[in-house]
Design goal:
By secondary structure, this protein is α+β, with helices and mostly antiparallel strands. It contains 1 helix and 5 strands; from the N terminus they run E-E-E-H-E-E. A 3-stranded antiparallel β-sheet has the order 1-2-3. A two-stranded antiparallel ribbon has the order 4-5.
Length: 74
């Protein structure tokens, strides 16, 4: 597998989930993680991390990356 990790807005969650929750799916190991209870919550969290300076340029990958990934729901 190529290690793709995709994010989805879940419109048909399991009974314990929330309609509109954002999930991250890893096809390689057949797993998923709920990242946020809504798209709005995900965007708000990302904006807070930008303001706090949690994103920095990584010259090795030549892209802006989150320095300390955190799960929104923790």
């Amino acid at each position: 597998m190529n290690g793709n990790i995709l994010r989805y807005i879940n419109l048909d969650p399991a009974p314990t989930g929330t309609i509109g929750q954002v999930i991250e799916v890893c096809d390689e190991n057949c797993s998923y993680e709920v990242l946020a209870n809504s798209f709005e919550e995900l965007l708000s969290h990302d904006a807070q991390q930008l303001i706090a300076g949690d994103y920095q340029f990584n010259p090795e990958y030549e892209e802006v990356m989150l320095q300390t990934p955190k799960n929104i729901l923790e």
